[in-house]
Design brief:
The complex is a heterodimer of chains A (about 325) and B (about 700).
Chain A lengths: L19 H11 L16 H8 L8 H8 L22 E3 L17 E3 L7 E4 L2 E7 H6 L1 H11 L5 E7 L5 H15 L2 E5 L2 H13 L16 H10 L6 H11 L2 H6 L2 H5 L6 H12 L9 H10 L6 H8 L1
Parallel strand pairs in A: 1-2, 4-5, 5-6
Antiparallel strand pairs in A: 1-3, 3-4
Helix pairs in contact in A: 8-9
Chain B lengths: L5 H10 L4 E5 L5 H10 L7 E6 L3 H10 L14 E6 H9 L10 E4 L7 H13 L4 E6 L7 H10 L5 E4 L4 H8 L4 E7 L3 H24 L9 H5 L2 H8 L8 H22 L2 H8 L5 H6 L7 H13 L8 H15 L5 E6 L2 H12 L11 E4 L2 E7 L5 H7 L3 E4 L4 H13 L6 E7 L3 H26 L18 E5 L7 H7 L3 E5 L6 E2 L4 E7 H10 L1 H12 L2 E7 L10 H10 L4 E5 L2 H12 L7 H6 L8 H4 L2 H9 L8 H8 L2 H6 L2 H8 L2 H12 L28
Parallel strand pairs in B: 1-5, 1-6, 2-3, 2-4, 4-5, 7-12, 8-10, 8-11, 11-12, 13-14, 16-17, 17-18
Antiparallel strand pairs in B: 9-10, 13-15, 15-16
Helix pairs in contact in B: 1-2, 2-3, 4-5, 8-11, 8-14, 12-14, 20-24, 30-31
The chains are: A alpha/beta (about 325), B alpha/beta (about 700).
Chain lengths: ~325, ~700
């Protein structure tokens, strides 16, 4: 019998309701150093037992530490996948053998991964980033587990991600605790709602290892056509398809802006209301009511200076 | 001003100086009552705040009273009636700029649209002033469900619900005195029109059926009648489930709306314009996009019939000939009559103008009247209120070209107020048509809404609406909140949790919780938008640069989960390993988290917040029209540095069109940007496939290493 932090539900077949109390006892006792023999597991792997020993903060000092390292590399079925005894291949996604059996592994399909004994996190996409995996349901039963694991990775990585699978009905109070823990432990909380999503998240962290920030940065050098589509989409209720329609019907912005309301109404996808909204919007003066051009230009000059003085005074008063 | 009607007098007496929520039937023109009510407070000894949003109704009211509307800067010093937006009121109250304790009362227009900031403003008012009145008004009974009306009443802290439906006995007696002479013209639809209507209804019911099939359990309330109701009604029905709908469902909804428009224009316009409206639906482009209704036999017959109708002997819309007959009849009299034709849309007016004057070519677009014998005939679109229009033209004969409940009510009210001369109203409607059905549905809907409200009022026991306003204190310290954040619910909730909320124009972040902790709040839609536009990247950079503990607060709801832009978010976490993420399932949870984060930490420093590096130009949002600011900022050649100069010196799009490339270069800073803006404004744009040729996507490596199987 074994339990992993990633067991999604009791129904997954590993932990039945009857067994739960002893699971808890087992976990408690493990933290004071009771060794769990691999023969008590269902024969899957030695590393499954290692999981609980690894959570000990002073792992390397443990007398079982060396023993664990000497254990044979696991069951033959997964032998080819886990190269735990070979040299560390940092170009692959490293997976802690404790994660063996976690359903999210099935969904890592686009990057190479391998089991690696020596890593502190559950998943290590790069040397500087480590991911801990936690099932909310498991956390509900064993809140201590997370603390132990966090201690284990506290100074190991620049980016420490806590990947939480939301598989618990009443997630709100747990989420609050986890938010707080992550802030205190300086970890980045990422949520997944299924094993598949969790797998994709782990995979993405590997794939984005050296990704430049372009994807989330402002892009100016778009083609004029697409910039214009984007501009037209700024008018409320005009969507992308409408913008494309407008450009294909009228051609240029000038023609769109000067088109009579009637013509706009005839465009597919435009009802009278939407047409009128567009028509009005394109005729609106840029300056708001009551603001003069001088005001706006003056504000531009002051921009460099401190124009928040007013706020300051009020705060003091 | 014409005399007040009995129900108006009574309404006014019911409302003066009392806490109340007034819901009246549309078209009863409570605006006039509001005007009289506010006029009574136009005196420096009073200070009555009117919370509005700057919509037309409010502008009219402010104009009538001679005070500036809420879109302009207001001053509380002079007393009287002051129009103010909820956001400004909240910020002013928190900065102690408005003497809330001395305010006579608050009037809330459009009570059905009360949002977080309005609720916050009212709560602040109640906390500091337990005696001033709060009076909320609405003329949209169908916007109040039973749950909603209780919520609004809790928000305004009162249990006095005043209901004034059209069937109120006082209203009935007031309006039954002098009534207009109504001539109902039930026009018959032609055979082909009837067939087209049947086909359209069939297609609409297909869309509805498909929608319900695709979304079992979600859209069970939806039926053809709902789909036919105003787009707004449909949208309200769909809003709660919108994010759960797939692209196919959304397309079905768009198609249902298109079909609805067609049904209406079938009743309003002639065969040629109807056919013109169909044309874009026959393109291959639309066929690919549409949800498949084009494949039904009904669609085929729709197109064939519409074309046949517009054949050699053009079918004339039966309403048009009916209209022409009426005009002929009325213009026969020698007297100098004025006839007013009211249609729902301006384009219908223009069409009718052309038809009635038999003048295809020369009719000016803005000409709205013509002479027939001795009669002056005006064509105007339906507006609300109609009163100024009626007063200006003083017609004796009115022809309602489209069936519209609000217009009918307003004519009744106008006649009751001005008994002389007696109006003759022609009510032109297609018998047995969708148009008639829609009119009846609108009436029934309003009646049902009022009946539900009456029941609600009866069940509303005394003291059921709690008047617990909470206390204002700084027990949990101070949080600096960006003034733009007051649109959301969170500042209100923080204030309720006894945090002192300090409004300030923040350059970095939305909330400064402690000295080191800066929070940027994002709803899922914001998150998607700001990750795409690059705004969040800039915000995160600024937060990381200025605060030790930058936090991204993501507010998500269950339905949003599938939309989360996970990959981009992950990239953000990789680039900003110090950025913490707080996941909050509700604004309440966010408020609790923020309060919790404050415990045991230093208070935020205002000096630091003010000194922080700004990434966004302040005042831009206050000085420029939001839509146009965003619009212009997207144009080629415009960037954040020259946006202000383009906006303030450009003036409007029309002015930009008149400028040459050199002038635009002056505005944008360089010749290159000026040139690209110039060509973007004037040149025909099409997707340049050559330039935009996207590299074929790299085939994802199928390599599985180490392979699991081998």
């Amino acid at each position: 019998m074994k339990i992993f932090p990633f067991h999604a539900t009791g129904g997954a077949g590993f932990v039945s309701a009857v067994e739960r109390p002893c699971v808890l006892n087992y976990l408690k006792s493990s933290s004071i150093g009771v060794q769990d023999k691999s023969d008590s597991m269902d024969g899957a792997s030695s590393s499954g037992g290692g999981q609980l020993r690894d959570v000990l903060p002073n792992l390397s000092k443990s007398k079982f530490y060396d023993q664990a390292k000497q254990l044979p590399p696991g069951d033959p079925a997964s032998a080819s996948t886990s190269k735990s005894s070979g040299p560390v291949n940092y170009s692959a996604l490293l997976v802690n053998p404790k994660q063996k059996g976690n359903p999210l592994l099935k969904h890592i399909t686009s990057v190479a991964w391998q089991f690696e004994e020596g890593i502190a996190a559950d998943y290590q996409p790069t040397r500087t980033a480590g991911i801990l995996f936690l099932s909310m349901q498991y956390h509900n039963l064993n809140p201590e587990y997370l603390h132990e694991r966090i201690k284990g990775i506290s100074n190991m990585y620049d980016l420490r991600v806590l990947l939480v699978q939301v598989d618990f009905a009443n997630s709100e109070p747990l989420l609050r605790t986890l938010n707080r823990i992550c802030l205190l432990a300086q970890m980045t909380l990422v949520l997944a709602w299924s094993a598949e999503q969790a797998g994709k998240i782990v995979e993405t962290y590997k794939m984005y290892e050296n990704k430049p920030p372009d994807m989330i940065m402002e892009r100016n050098a778009d083609e004029p056509y697409f910039q214009m589509v984007k501009a037209l989409c700024c008018v409320p209720s005009v969507n992308r398809a409408d913008a494309v329609t407008l450009l294909s019907v009228f051609g240029s912005l000038e023609k769109i802006a000067k088109a009579p309301l009637e013509k706009l109404e005839l465009c597919p996808g435009f009802g009278p209301a939407k047409a009128e909204r567009l028509w009005r919007a394109l005729r609106k003066p840029f300056l708001r009511l009551g603001v003069t051009q001088e005001d706006a230009l003056k504000a531009a000059e002051e921009e460099e200076g401190d124009d928040e003085e007013e706020d300051l005074n009020d705060y003091d008063g | 001003m014409s005399r007040m009607l009995e129900y108006e007098r009574q309404l006014l007496l019911d409302m003066v100086g009392v806490n109340c929520l007034l819901i009246s039937a549309a078209g009863l023109d409570i605006e006039r009552v509001m005007e009289s009510l506010l006029r009574a407070y136009l005196d420096p000894r009073n200070l009555v705040l009117v919370v509005g949003t700057g919509n037309e109704q409010e502008l009219r009211l402010a104009n009538a009273l001679g005070v500036p509307p809420s879109t302009q800067k207001c001053s509380y010093d002079e007393g009287g009636v002051v129009f103010v937006t909820a956001r400004v009121l909240v910020v002013d109250a928190l900065r102690d700029r408005v003497p809330l304790a001395n305010v006579t009362g608050v009037v809330m227009l459009r009570a059905h649209a009360i949002l977080a900031q309005e609720a916050f403003a009212l709560r602040l008012f109640r906390q500091r002033n337990p005696t001033g009145f709060i009076c909320a008004v609405s003329d949209a009974p169908s916007r109040f469900s039973s749950h909603n009306v209780r919520k609004v009443m809790r928000t305004i802290f009162c249990d006095n619900l005043l209901l004034w439906p059209r069937f109120h006995s006082v209203v009935v007696s007031a309006l039954s005195g002098v009534t207009p002479e109504v001539v109902e013209l039930h026009v018959k639809m032609t055979q082909s029109m009837l067939k087209i209507q049947t086909a359209l209804l069939e297609l609409l019911s297909y869309c509805v059926r498909e929608l319900r099939r695709l979304n079992p359990g979600l859209l069970d309330e939806l039926n053809v009648e709902e789909a036919l109701a105003s787009p707004r009604t449909l949208q309200r029905l769909l809003d709660p489930v919108w994010h759960q709908l797939g692209p196919k469902s959304r397309q079905l909804i768009a198609d249902a709306k298109t079909l609805r428009t067609l049904l209406r224009s079938l009743c309003q316009s002639d065969s040629t314009s109807f056919l013109a409206q169909l044309a874009p639906l026959r393109t291959a482009e639309y066929a690919q996009r549409s949800s498949g209704w084009l494949l039904l036999p009904a669609a085929e017959s729709l197109f064939v019939l519409a074309k046949g109708r517009d054949g050699n002997d053009k079918e004339i819309c039966p309403k048009w000939s009916a209209l022409a007959d009426v005009l002929e009849e009325e213009a026969k009299d020698d007297g100098e009559n004025k006839i007013l034709i009211l249609a729902e849309e301006r384009r219908t007016c223009r069409q009718l103008m052309r038809y009635l004057t038999k003048d295809e070519a020369s009719s000016e677009d803005d000409q709205t009247f013509f002479k027939k014998n001795n009669c002056l005939v005006f064509l105007e679109p339906l507006v609300s209120p109609l009163e100024p229009l009626l007063a200006a033209f003083s017609p004796r004969i009115i022809i309602l070209y489209d069936a519209n409940v609000v217009a009918v009510r307003q004519l009744e009210v106008f006649q009751a107020r001005n008994p002389e001369p007696r109006l003759r109203v022609y009510f032109v409607v297609f018998g047995g048509s969708v148009e008639e059905q829609l009119y009846l549905t609108a009436l029934r809907r309003e009646k049902d809404a009022f009946e539900a409200l009456v029941r609600e009022k009866a069940s509303l026991g005394a003291g059921e609406v709690s008047v617990d306003v909470g206390v204002e204190s700084a027990k949990h310290g101070i949080v600096l909140v960006d003034v733009r954040e007051f649109r959301s619910e969170l500042p209100n909730l923080l204030h309720q949790k006894e945090v002192r909320v300090e409004p300030i124009t923040l350059k970095v972040g939305d909330y400064i919780v402690t000295r080191d902790l800066c929070v940027e709040r994002k709803s899922v839609s914001d998150l998607i938008g700001s990750l795409n536009s690059g705004r969040l990247y800039k915000q995160a950079t600024a937060m990381q640069r200025n605060y030790k503990r930058p936090v991204l607060l993501i507010e998500f709801e269950g339905k949003d989960v599938a939309r989360l832009p996970m990959q981009r978010l992950q990239l953000l976490t990789l680039l900003f390993p110090r950025l913490r993420i707080i996941w909050s399932p509700s604004p309440h949870a966010s408020a609790e988290m923020l309060v919790e984060l404050k415990a045991g930490h230093d208070e935020p420093s205002l000096e630091h917040a003010v000194a922080s590096h700004r990434y966004d130009t302040p005042l831009l949002h206050e000085q420029f029209d939001t839509t146009m600011r965003e619009f212009v900022s997207c144009l080629p050649g415009v960037h954040s540095k020259n946006l202000r100069s383009v906006l303030s010196q450009g003036g409007s799009l029309a002015q930009l069109f008149t400028m040459d490339a050199a002038k635009l270069a002056e505005l944008t800073g360089t010749a290159a940007t000026g040139q690209s803006l110039h060509s973007a404004l004037h040149k025909a744009l099409s997707p340049n496939l050559q330039a935009n040729y996207v590299k074929p996507k790299k085939q994802p490596l199928k390599r599985k290493w180490p392979s699991k199987k081998t």
